[in-house]
């Protein structure tokens, strides 16, 4: 059974930029930046730059958090997402 795509050009876009490549870019970017997650209640907060913000958005990890600090961007990860990044991909450390 072939996958079904919503919208024109979705299949071509997915073929040109597959998810495994985006996740690999996210992993290497997190390792390079030595990212550390802050435990906050049932979530993990991570400070990100523009590149990481885009990669989190494209991989559908976490949610962007609006703060009063314009120079800093934060993403809120669920525990499952943080666990996957920390233990499966080994690219996120706990602060």
From TrEMBL:
Gene Ontology BP, a term: tRNA-type intron splice site recognition and cleavage
Record domain tRNA intron endonuclease N-terminal: where = 36-93
A GO term from the CC aspect: cytoplasm
Which terms in the Gene Ontology molecular function aspect does this entry carry?
A: tRNA-intron lyase activity
Matches recorded under Pfam families: tRNA_int_endo_N
Query: Could you identify this protein by its name?
Result: tRNA intron endonuclease N-terminal domain-containing protein
Gene source species: Gossypium darwinii
